[in-house]
Amino acid sequence: MFAFLDSLFAAGGSSPGAVEIVVAVIVSLILNLLVAILYKATYRGNSYSQDYVHTLVIIGTVVTVIILIVRGEGGGQIAFGMFAAFSIIRFRRNLTQARDLAFIFVSMAIGLSVGALPLGQLWLAVVVLCIVAGAIFAMAQGDLFAPRRVSHSLRVRVTNDINYDEAFDPIFALFTEASELRSVESVQAGMMTELRYDITLKESGSVADFMEKMQVASGNNRVLLSRIRGNDLGV
Known about the structure:
InterPro entries: DUF4956 (IPR032531). By secondary structure, the protein is of the alpha+beta class. The protein has helices spanning about 1-10, 20-40, 50-70, 75-90, 100-115, 120-140, 165, 170-175, 205-215; strands at about 150-160, 175-185, 190-200, 225. It has a four-stranded antiparallel β-sheet with strand order 2-3-1-4.
């Protein structure tokens, strides 16, 4: 088997040997599996695709094999040319998140590094992947660079004699970081008005106190507070 691999990959004096080829492919496969695990661990959303994760592993491993084939005298330029060609080929899938594209490049970079580096320097690819993976995991866990998100949806019914433009302002100033009137609807044959707000509650505030004050301000009519998850808003 090793003799067959030697004959297949022996294109120049610096072509990799059979052992180096097998080791490089195994290392590439393991590292790209780690990339797949990282992607799954940091994924947010409702469109997770097992097929996409498998593709990440396959792309990285195949790039390694290609680089090993063309590696040798003058092969470096060919390898990087092929890598550039891969980068401009439109990925035949509608990517739901921009980070999906980034993970494709991470997988390809791992495949390229493992295929291009000598056997004794493969640890460099491992170290670089650990650094990149650590940064991605930290950003995901710490929710870094996240915009301010709406935390709750508030529905309030008031009678028509209440000036809702000003009635709730003192309460919102005390208990919320931000509030926005999203809709106004006439209900119960025009006898009442239903207001819908997007609000961000302060962490230090009491929800019970907020609801009590809203209940009084609305004239003891219906008040409904619903929690909103950030991903549901697409942010």
